[in-house]
Amino acid sequence: MPLAGQVVGDGVRLVRPVGRGSHSLVYFAVDRTGQPCAVKIFPAHLLGYADREYQHGHHLDHPRLVRVMARTTVDDQPALISTLARGEVLFGRYSQRPAAAAERRPFLLTLVHLLDALGYLHSLGLVHRDIKPENVIVEDDGRAKLVDYDLSGPAFEAFSTPTRMGTAAFQSPEAARGEPLGPESDLYGVGVLLGWGLYGALPDPEDPQPLTPDPLGALHLSLTRPERHERPADAAQVRQELLRLAGLPY
User: Fold this and answer.
1) What number does CATH give the domain 88-246?
2) How far apart are CA 105 and CA 213, in angstroms?
3) Which residues pair with 27 in a beta bridge?
4) Where does the secretion signal sit in this chain (predicted)?
5) Burial category of 116 from C-beta neighbours within 10 Å (exposed 0-12, middle 13-18, buried 19 and up)
6) Domain 7-82 is of which CATH architecture?
7) pTM score
8) Known binding site for ATP: residues?
9) What is the mean pLDDT of residues 140-152?
10) What pLDDT, in 10s, does the model give residues 82-128?
11) How far is the CA of 50 from the CAs of 40, 78, 126, 131, 196, in angstroms?
């Protein structure tokens, strides 16, 4: 049965798919009053991911984060209704590369908003654990929201066995080892995105990137140090350092 046109939850009508992640399919939808929202649908066997996202997303209240408003089902699959993040995923939005040269102010605003979102999450004792371009939705002017909390959880949460969290290209070394993760691991992902913006490509261990004359190069190196205790762990301080180095007044 086609999903578009179905009414779920408290009068929410599915309109069209707008994204697909590793764990879910996201639909643009409208509620009974005509207000736009998003419906994230999980396969039945990934109920645990839906539970985790609802647990950690339903109480969030920050302009740079989507908020999970309700749980529901779609064709017997677990689903979540959330506020809508408008725009494109980060890599899609910044098609001219390197983004920090081609569209410097919008790109840096995107990073500022990402750091705002992380600062709020970290203040609640939570870490996102999956900072990557697909989870940063960017509008034309660079405004951004952080989405997807199905891997999120308490900082330094320990599991019964080592559990690798996140997406390989953006994982901190400790995430790749399956260690408990703290704020510095989320900020490592920000560092990878900053490096992509400066160089126009993700790092290649076999072909190290040359030092850049851009003043933001120092922040990139600081955020991506291999040893977690040598990295910044305060998103607000990183935000201020980014603005200082870029000479911007946001």
Assistant:
1) 1.10.510.10
2) 18
3) 17, 39
4) none
5) buried
6) 2-Layer Sandwich (3.30)
7) 0.94
8) 40
9) 95
10) 999 999 999 999 999 999 999 999 999 999 999 999 999 999 999 99
11) 9, 7, 17, 18, 30
